[in-house]
Amino acid sequence: MKQKRHFARHAAGAILIAAATMFLAGCAGKGQQSSDLDLDVPRPPSVEDPRTAILSGRITYLPRIALSPKAVVKVWLQDMSEPGSPVPVIIDEQEIRAPGQVPVAFQLKYDPSAIRPERRYTLLVKIYEGDRVRFLNARTYPVLSAGCMADCEVAVDLMN
User: Fold this and answer.
1) pLDDT at residue 16 in the model
2) CATH number attached to the domain at 53-158
3) Cα separation of 143 and 150, whole Å?
4) Bridge partners of residue 141, in order along the sequence
5) Residues of the chain scoring pLDDT < 70
6) Burial, 87: exposed, middle or buried (Cβ in 10 Å; 0-12, 13-18, 19+)?
7) By CB neighbour count within 10 A (0-12 exposed, 13-18 middle, 19+ buried), where does 142 fall?
8) CB neighbour list of residue 140: distance below 8 Å, 6 or more residues apart
9) Taking the complete model, does pTM exceed 0.85, yes or no?
10) 3-state secondary structure 70-103
11) Are strands 72-79 and 121-129 parallel, antiparallel or unpaired?
12) Residue 60 phi, psi (nearest 5)
């Protein structure tokens, strides 16, 4: 009698392990099938996407002023040559909260096939402290078609 209970306990354990293995194998198979179905779904570009390039750089300023821990840096990659548009077309933007001290690194994504040599692309950088713009690039920073292609350095000026 004792042997039957011992056998039954081991058999139940083996059945439980087999059932769990089959369940997990089934879940793995379903995940692969659903990802096969998702191949036609457009995904946002990533760094690995061959249609995406990155314009990187750093932001600096000359005054020896520490940024507040609540400072926010905003960087825009913009197309300034859109005919008939009173405002630039934003290609990408990055917001950096609590950036620490300068230099502050940034990375902006763009589609290199969409860049046209006859167009004018620039960077706009603002550093906010609260609702107030504390620093701003006062001069234009041309990039891509007629300027910096990578590792750009943008100097911002203190606003009064």
Assistant:
1) 43
2) 2.60.40.2990
3) 9
4) 123
5) 1-50
6) exposed
7) middle
8) 122
9) no
10) CCEEEEEEEECCCCCCCCCEEEEEEEEECCCCCC
11) antiparallel
12) -135, 165
